[in-house]
Amino acid sequence: MIASAIAGLAPFAGEVRVAGEPMPVSGDPLAFRAAGGAFVPADRRDEGLVLDLSLAENLALPAPPGRVLLDRPALRRRAAERLSAFAVRGESADAPARSLSGGNQQKLVLARELAGAPRLVVAIHPTRGLDLAASSAVRARLAGACAAGASVLAVSADPDEAFLFRGSVRVVYRGEVGPALPPGTPLVTLGRMMAGLAA
Amino acid sequence: MRTPPRVLASLVAAGTAVASLALLALVAGASPLDALRSLAAGSLGSRAALGETLVRSTGLVLTAMAGCLALKAGVLNIGLEGQFLAGAAAAAAAGAALPAAPLPTRFLVLAAAAAAGALWVVPAALLAEKREVPEVLSTILLNLVAATAVSGLVRGALRDPAGDYPQSRPLPDAVRLGPLLAGSRATAAFLFAFAAAAGLAILLAATPLGLKLRAIGLSPKAARAIGLPRARLRLLAFAASGALAGLAGGLEVLAVTGRLYDPFSAGVGYSGLAAALLGQAQPVPSAAAALVLAALGAGSSAMQRDTGVPAALASLVPGVVVLTVLAARARAARSAP
User: Fold this and answer.
1) For chain A, what is the domain count?
2) Residue A47 belongs to a domain with what CATH number?
3) B210 contacts A62? CB cut-off 8 A
4) What is the crossing angle of helices B230-251 and B268-278, to 10°?
């Protein structure tokens, strides 16, 4: 909830600081993006991608290349580059996003979102429903974005996964954000906190 | 995997049309074969017949394009009829008031028509955006408002004092569009319609704006999360749809009737929307469907003359066809994985 509000999809009041610098966010996805935000929504099929558009078209949104006419060569070039950089396996760049497997759909979302060197990446359940290989690929991409200078806010409901993100881990229970947990916190403790039981 | 269902849909549509026409002829006590023959001759069989089809195609193709544009952006604009009437009323008012200088007046008449069509959308668009009133409801109600307004205008503000009938003053002959070919009623107006179809096909398939419009139509939620200005794009498509329907009304006045009267439209906007639905909101197939409806309209007048099968019966055919095709499509969608 907090994460999607930061991305501008729910009413938001408050202040967002990225690496100490305030980031103007006004509860509007356009403002969030203009401020250098990237968003990996919880539901890649419903919110992450337009399933009936092609891979190349999905990668071109929200600002397709071309002034009057669509610049098809640029669209293709950009798609080929991103698809290979993010190891998205699909029939072709012109196939609909619907035709991809779940893991490849999520990689396609990341290929679009991580393209513009974002300041802040908000990723909600980025590995939900993915197999092991795809999950670790997605985590590696987010870690890569981090290494490239982005701040990443990842949300997971899986206590096993929390420390795999290699960042500061906090438990959010009923809207209350808990303290940062040290690495090596036992899973049982984490699980109890997520269930709302005092650690 | 995409083409076969579409081909199938066209076959279903054509089959339904022929079968229901034959049935109607039987009901009216005529030979189905004679009725179909006179329908074909009356729509395509001669220069005059072809001209009649083209005359009718102008409004149908343009309103079909208006329907496509809105549908593509996810707006079901049932208000094409009202926007058509708003355009016609604006054209009649502007045409009778402006000087009889052909080119500038024609341009202004059509501009007024398009603007009126776009304005007729505004209440529905605002209600949808601010109060979440479904466009389906608001636009259909605005159709009734438009029909009532036309009825009032031709009896009041726009009434021609010279005539006995409730109708507006005629446009000067110099301003009205003349026939393109001798022996046919067709004017250059239908060229607008085909240009609009080509333009819309290019807009949707080959421009950045078209891609954005398709994205918001296909998945409003994803479009929002991805960062497209959804409300603005929807309003743009909706208003442009109204402008196209208004332009259709303006051309009807400029090219066919020369004035406004009551009732002015026999459901052009609804037929245009039916064509857009038959064409699955794709400009070229929808324009083709609109042409077929135009031919059906022209042919059914001939059929009534030749065989006594009432043309009003033939006007049932588009309705039957749309229902059949939508039912077939829904069935296909259900059985698909």
Assistant:
1) 1
2) 3.40.50.300
3) no
4) 130
